[in-house]
Amino acid sequence: MLAMVRAATEEGSFAAVFNAHHRQAVRLAYLLTSDAFQAEDIAAEAFAKVYVRWKRGEVRDVGAYLRRAVANEANSKLRRRYLERRESSRRSGDDRGVRLVDEDAADRDEVWAALARLPDRQRHAVVLRYYEDLSEAETAQLLGCSVGTVKSQVSRGLAKLERMLDPAADAGRGGGSR
Fold first, then answer.
1. Contact status, residue 131 vs residue 157, Cβ threshold 8 Å
2. Which residue of 38, 74, 127, 176 has the fewest C-beta atoms within 10 A of its own C-beta?
3. How far apart are CA 151 and CA 119, in angstroms?
4. 91-149, pLDDT tens digit by residue?
């Protein structure tokens, strides 16, 4: 029974600590993150971590300890947010934003039409290398030619595709043909 009374008293005194410091903790978190919802979460996480240490008697100055806990938690959240942004941009690989299905289909149709206009050997080399993802040696073996021939056919095919798909780029280079 004495242990329950003591625990209730300790939790009650931490409630007083919470009431005394909550507003300042949330304000600090908001100033560090500029996000009100995230500031509340950070303050709650910091209080949870401080409570564990406080309960063990490891915290002498609750205000200073809590400020440090809020700053650490905010730094952790910001690092995570930057990491998530970096990873999402790496995964998407496209800075143009969200594209409609119709736009993707139109691009695909344009690429396939351009591929169809390539000479057979260039089209075969490009398709085997990039669509089938074969190595230069595997492509050469399938086409019955040397690796150097595959390299030159792929290079010429890609250059023609680029000119067909982006006429402005060709105009910027002087419009020469191969």
1. no
2. 176
3. 15
4. 655 555 565 666 666 677 888 888 889 998 898 998 888 888 889 999 999 889 999 99
What tokens were used for 20? 């005394």
pLDDT tens digits, one per residue of 7-51: 444 556 888 989 999 999 999 989 888 889 999 999 999 999 999
**Number of DSSP helices (H) and strands (E) in the chain, helices first:** 8, 0
- Give pLDDT, residue 91: 63
How many other β-carbons are positioned within 10 Å of the β-carbon of residue 127? 16
User: What is the end-to-end Cα distance of the chain in Å, rounded?
Assistant: 93
Tokens encoding 69: 């806990």
Sketch out the chain's domains with CATH numbers: 2-92 (1.10.1740), 101-170 (1.10.10.10)
CA 107 to centroid of chain Cα atoms: 25
Q: Which residue is associated with the tokens 């021939």?
A: 149
Tokens 């005194």: give the residue: 13
The token duo for 96 is: 């143009």
* pTM of this structure: 0.44
- The whole-number average pLDDT for the span 74-92 is 77
C-alpha separations of 77 from 30, 64, 74 in Å? 12, 20, 5
